[in-house]
Every structure is written in C-alpha cells, then in structure tokens.
C-alpha cells in the first residue's frame, strides 16, 4: 500500500517524508526548503491524451504507419535518473531548449490490474504535480529516450495530495510561469481519457503498483525554456513546483 493522509512531501536531507497539512507545506516551502520527489515508484507518461494535441496533428494522425488516432493509451517510462523534486536544477542540453510539460500525476495506492472505470478512484492514493520535461522533437508515437530520459527530466511534487482533497481531478486548471510571467494555461478537462478511464484502459494490459505514478498527459502548447530560466508550475491552489534551468554541466550536483 501507498497511503497519504493529507500532504506528503520529502524535504531534502530528511530520511523520511512528512505527512502534513497544506498550511505546513506552504510554510516549509516559504522557508526555502528544497524537496526530493515524494514518490519512488515507476513514473509513466501519457502521450496524445489531449484533444488539442490531436487536433493540432491534423491529417498527420491518419498517416502511415498507424493510419488512425490512437485506440489505446500511448505510454512511455520516465526512468529513475529523471526523478527530481521541488527546486531541482535541470541542464538545458542545447539550443533547442527544454519543453516544460505540466501534468497531473496520478499516484497509485494499491496494486491495480484490470480495474473497472467505476472503481478506479479506489486505487488512487492521491495526486501530484509532474513537470514532464523533454527536448523538443517531432516523434510522437515512438518517444525518444535521448529526448525524454535525461537526468532530472521528471520533476515531481512538491507534495502528493491525498485523494480526498481533490474531488474532481478532471476539472483542474494548470499554469506555467517562466521568469515570473504567465506563459501557459490549460485544464485537465481537455483530456481524451479522464483519470478513471485512463486507469481502466492502462490496467487492462499492465499492473500498476503502489507508489507508481501515471500522468494524465501534457496539454498541447507547453512552453519551451532556455538556460537561466526559472519556471513555476501550478495546478489550482496547490503549492507550486519550482525548477531552475541551467546551462549544460552547471546542473551537476543538482537536487534530486
């Protein structure tokens, strides 16, 4: 089991995570605390789960080799080296910049296999913010490891919020600020599959374990940042997730 009573966060340097209320989370973060990712299970990203992303593809979605929109969730793994937490430092590998994909992370509470959509929420421990980062690229159906699996390219947190605090995960606003300016806004309401349907469809062919995270997917139009940028990702009134982007090797020793 992976359970969250209120808000679970892992302060950098502490041996164990804390389960505290929202006010305590904000107090700790206001004091300058950096965090580890509050989860340690597998993290799966979801592609093309946003209606606007499918619309933007136009006729390309019907082109070979697939010749149709996806009929099942398109998943990719964010390996352990990508995991980082609040106030992580992320290296920008080149002139292409890094795309800051802000997504809702669904945190699994108990082993989920062949879960019916009507029962899906019983398998969820809570939710978290996921900054699913990648180097901009054109490949859609075959996500490239070299673009999506670089060190610290999956920033999670600051906290896992108990399911009881999120009555409708399919109606949450998402925002990305860069250098203090609003750069992007979206909502989880534009997803092709909502939380329950996504879990039902994914667990039809694979088991999700306690502590695993599956993202609802990155909304279309995520901003691209370069080195020396500071990004803040927020969902609703949750404590926001902060990331510092630095040039090349300057990220060595980054928090994770």
TrEMBL record:
InterPro entries named among the record's database cross-references: FAH (IPR051121), Fumarylacetoacetase-like_C (IPR011234), Fumarylacetoacetase_C_sf (IPR036663)
Q: Which residues form the Fumarylacetoacetase-like C-terminal domain?
A: 43-244
Query: Which co-factors does it depend on?
Result: Mg(2+)
Q: Which GO annotations describe the biological process of this protein? A: small molecule metabolic process
| MF-aspect GO terms | isomerase activity; metal ion binding
UniProt keywords, alphabetically = Isomerase, Metal-binding
| PANTHER family registered for this protein in UniProt | FUMARYLACETOACETATE HYDROLASE DOMAIN-CONTAINING PROTEIN 2A, FUMARYLACETOACETATE HYDROLASE DOMAIN-CONTAINING PROTEIN 2A-RELATED
Similarity field: Belongs to the FAH family.
Protein name, as recorded: 5-oxopent-3-ene-1,2,5-tricarboxylate decarboxylase / 2-hydroxyhepta-2,4-diene-1,7-dioate isomerase
